[in-house]
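User: Second chain of the day. Same drill as before.
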Amino acid sequence: MKKLPEICFLTSDDLESSKLIDIVSLLLESGIRWIQYRDKKNIKKIIYQNAINLKQLTSKFDALLSINDYLDIALAVNADGVHLGQDDLPLKEAKKIANNMIIGISTHNLGQAREAENNGADYIGFGPIFHTTTKDAGEPKGVSALREVKEFINIPTIAIGGINITNLMSVIQSGADGVAISSGLLMGNIKDNFHKFKEIIERLQRGQ
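Assistant: Same format as last time:
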């Protein structure tokens, strides 16, 4: 598996299909190279069509596309990955049919993170780190919980939940290998937001 990009754009349920494509296009043009399509509102027929359109877009930019929850749709559109929740198809079963697809798992505590790694996940999503209005994901875990997970987990850990420009540094310094961001990229100028996120991460990677 090639190295995962440090910044993943996590789509929001409240985006209409046409706006979804417009925003993803702008993000890809800005430099984003990982799109995670999450849709818990629409029927699967619409999710499938959106996924087809997103795959066409990401392919043009050599970017990754992950589909949340629906392994069947991920396979149908030849997505690069699938991201499973704790209540979705068990990881061991998903791996039997996912071929070489990147498989990530949402985790909310150290026990779930360890289980995901032991069962062969390629990466974990961990959070919510901070309070988020994007989805009801429970109480914020904070960067201390992130540091604890990183002490025991060797696969990439993607931090999620309420991450923005002001708290990004603390998340990366706590060991996150990457971040999944939704509203933090969409509020204000999208291109400027992405470049600010990227600049902070690259500066920390250089040890500055």
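The longest helix spans residues 44-60.

User: Great, on to the next one.
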